[in-house]
Amino acid sequence: MACTEYYCRHWRLKPSVSKTVCSVFHLHNASSGRALKVTLNDEPLTHEPHPAYLGVTLDHTLNYMQHLTEIANNVKSRNSLLMKLTNTSWGANGLPL
């Protein structure tokens, strides 16, 4: 982290410690739940077991199960709204064009 702190100081960057999280990915499953104690600018970073990077939620085994569960819940809620609308007489009829 000393290299990261030096880089940020050199280029006059100010990373947000409240938004920055730390996590570790490895093949040793017994240590997967262990929290890290990482500091940036003498402030501790929060440990996040399922961090999100570019909209994709990662987990320690990198099988994207947490991300797929979140996506499935979003689709289920949207699909239930569409199912409720199909039983109404609002809007256009169901005839093909």
Largest sheet: 2 strands, parallel
End-to-end distance, in Å?
A: 61 Å
In angstroms, what is the radius of gyration? 22 Å
Oligomeric assembly: single chain
Helical stretch tally: 2
* Tally of DSSP β-strands: 6
Mean pLDDT, to the nearest integer, reads 83
> Portion of residues in helices?
25-40%
Percent of residues in beta strands? 5-15%
Shape: elongated
Question: How many domains is the backbone divided into?
Answer: 2
- Strand line-up of the largest beta sheet: 1-4
List unreliable stretches of 5+ residues: none
Category by helix and strand content: alpha+beta
What series of H and E elements makes up the topology?
Answer: HEEEEEEH
In words, what does this structure look like?
The structure is a single chain. It is built from two helices and six strands, in the order H-E-E-E-E-E-E-H. The strands form three sheets. A two-stranded parallel sheet has the order 1-4. Strands 2-3 form a two-stranded antiparallel ribbon. It has a two-stranded antiparallel sheet with strand order 5-6. It has two domains: 1-49, no CATH class; 50-89. Helices cover 32% and strands 12% of the residues. It has helices at residues 2-10, 65-86, and strands spanning 21-22, 39-40, 43-44, 46-47, 52-53, 56-57. The mean pLDDT is 83. It has 97 residues and is α+β, with helices and mostly antiparallel strands.
